[in-house]
């Protein structure tokens, strides 16, 4: 014989269970996220709306301030060691146009940093072979390709003239005279530099290394 609870007790238990389920599915307002409180959320909104754009702008402007002290990126090379007319020359293989200059020399001749900067990538590519990317002043990436050896690591700070590798023929330069392919790419677009040449729109990102190096006094 089973004990049968009074009807009013069964109703109370059912109501309590119904309330528990309701709280689980639809929590009461007192359990809302802390992030929704105005006192906490308002400073965050102000930061995103007013301060963050200013901070980003300050970072960009800070990168534009340092002077771009440059030197020829192959130790011992002179202005006669590259063709002065090959920047943006085309057609140039699968690249379409030549977006840099080739500085020729002897195998294992030291390749040095053209300017101060931070090493952001050290890689081995099918076209460029052993390459090094350096972030220099004015938010410009300096690209060194076809190296025979790489002597730097990601995160390393370089001074102008510091050795980053040696001259070679790696990548698609295999079998050709040892040389350094050197390019300068701007992370900040310069739309006024766009031309109607082949891939002319890309000129807003690429600068002529020849123009940067040809006027050096040394």
**Main beta-sheet strand count, sense and barrel state:** 9 strands, antiparallel
Per DSSP E runs of 2 or more residues, the count of β-strands stands at 9
Number of helical regions: 3
Under the CATH scheme, the architecture of the largest domain is Distorted Sandwich
The CATH C-level class name of the largest domain: Mainly Beta
Q: Give the tally of structural domains.
A: 2
User: Quick check: average pLDDT?
Assistant: 84
Radius of gyration from the CA trace?
A: 31 Å
Fill in the CATH topology of the largest domain.
Glucose Permease (Domain IIA)
**pLDDT < 50 runs, ≥5 residues:** 30-34
Helical content class: 10-25%
CATH level-4 homologous superfamily of the largest domain: Glucose Permease (Domain IIA)
Class from helix and strand fractions: alpha+beta
Global geometry = elongated
Measured distance between first and last alpha carbons: 109 Å
Compressed to H and E, one letter per element, the order equals HHEEEEEEEEEH
* Relative strand content: 15-25%
Give structural notes:
The longest helix has 27 residues, at 38-64. By secondary structure, this protein is of the alpha+beta class. Mean pLDDT is 84; it is low at 30-34. Strands 1, 2, 3, 4, 5, 6, 7, 8 and 9 form a 9-stranded antiparallel beta sheet that branches. The protein has 2 domains: 7-64, no CATH class; 79-213, Distorted Sandwich (Glucose Permease (Domain IIA)). It has helices at residues 7-25, 38-64, 209-213, and strands at residues 101-104, 110-112, 117-125, 129-136, 140-150, 157-158, 163-167, 179-186, 206-207. It is elongated and about 95 Å long. The chain starts with 6 loop residues before the first helix and ends in a 5-residue tail after the last helix. The chain contains 3 helices and 9 strands.
